[in-house]
Structure formats: C-alpha cells, structure tokens
Protein: FCD domain-containing protein
Organism: Knoellia koreensis
Amino acid sequence: MHAQLRAEVLGGIFEPGERLKFAALAERYGASVSVLREALTRLVEQGLVTAETNVGFRVMPVSIEDLRDLTATRIDIESLALRYSIERGGVEWESDLVACHHRLERTPMLTDDAPVRISDDWEAAHAAYHSALIAGCESPRLLSIACGLRDAAGLYRRWSQPREPDRDVAGEHRRILDATLARDADAATEALRAHFQHTADILESALGGAEHLRVPAR
C-alpha cells in the first residue's frame, strides 16, 4: 500500500497541496483507514506529504522558499555523502556507478508525445545515478535522508515541467562522475553543488512565472 501510494505521489497523480481524503483513498486503493494512515505517516517522514492537526494529510505544497531550503539542504547532505563515498567506496561501488551513468546517458530525457515532459524512464535512471554516487558512504541514515530530499526535488521537476533549452545536463553528470572516479572530493562536490543549484535556479524561474502549478498530462 505504501509503495503504491508513494509511486503515485511521485508520479504527479495528486496536485501540490491537495488534501488526501481517507474515503477517496480507501476507494482508490481498497485499503482500510488504519493501513492508509500508516502509509501516509511514512510519506510524511519521507517529506512527500504533510500532516495538519484537525485537517488531515496533504501532498507536499510547493514554494520558492521551500525550494531554496530543499536545495541548500540537499547540497549539504549529498556533498557529505559523496565525500564519504569517495573515501570509503571500493571497486564494486565504482562499477555500479559507471553502470548507472551509462544507463542514464543512453536514456532519452524527454518524451516524444505532446505535451513534451521529462520521461519516467529518465527520471528512474536519474534517481539511480544520484543514488549510486553516494551509495559507498556506508551510512544508512545519511542515505535515507538523501533519498527523501531527492524525492522532494523530483516532485518539483514534475510539477513545474521546466524548459532547459541550453543546458548540458549530460555534461554536468559526466563532470561529477569523472571527478568522483578520480577520487577528487573537492571537484566532485563542487560539480554536484553546481548541478543542484543550476536545477534549482531553473525550477525557481518556472515557479515564479506560474500562477499555480498543475499536474502534467499523463
């Protein structure tokens, strides 16, 4: 139940800030209120849903202020995890990282259908690559925090559907990879910081120019 609801929240099925009503969710998923409450509580812990006293649960709302805080926190957490990975990761970690980058590099970022949007396959490959970058840190708690922040960032991308006509995303990913494999922690974390900040700047522009966000057509 939790996995299914999480996948649909991440997939943009629900609007930002939308109230998640138990009756509608019970009908949609065929689950009891207690099961739904447990799943929603886990999503709150993962930063995908908010809980409000006497109101219930809502999908995480979006704002420029939250995006800035999310970006700064993600840079701090994933930079630390990447430094640990470079210090502690072995050949198996390097091999997995190269394989994830290979898949990402060969997966089309945008869909062929209209309206054009970021493809589900690219989103999955992108998440796997960034997970692989820090997988060698040997800190389950750090990885768990990073995963929640990454999910929240993914939601911002899906909801705003930004346009990035002149951006070399593949080049950014390659620079992070090359510095990481060279075991240059300073260069790798700087490349990672620049990558996250570039994304945040584009998303902020998209959010600032929209009266409100709507879920992309699916």
About this structure: The chain has two domains: 2-59, 64-208. The first helix runs from residue 2 to 10.
